[in-house]
Amino acid sequence: MATRRGPQIVETPTEARQGEPGPSVLAMLAISTGLALLVLGLVWFVFFHT
Questions:
Q1: 12 with 19: CB under 8 angstroms?
Q2: How many C-beta atoms lie closer than 10 Å to residue 11's C-beta?
Q3: Coil, helix or strand for 9?
């Protein structure tokens, strides 16, 4: 558990590496994946659609 030594917060290396990916990370992943699929679909349609 993080402890406080004066103005500094002291954590173990494992605690310092832990993050909290919230819903914004999931939304960013979903939106970026959707945009990548859209761009690849447009490229396929423009160059390879016969």
A1: no
A2: 13
A3: strand
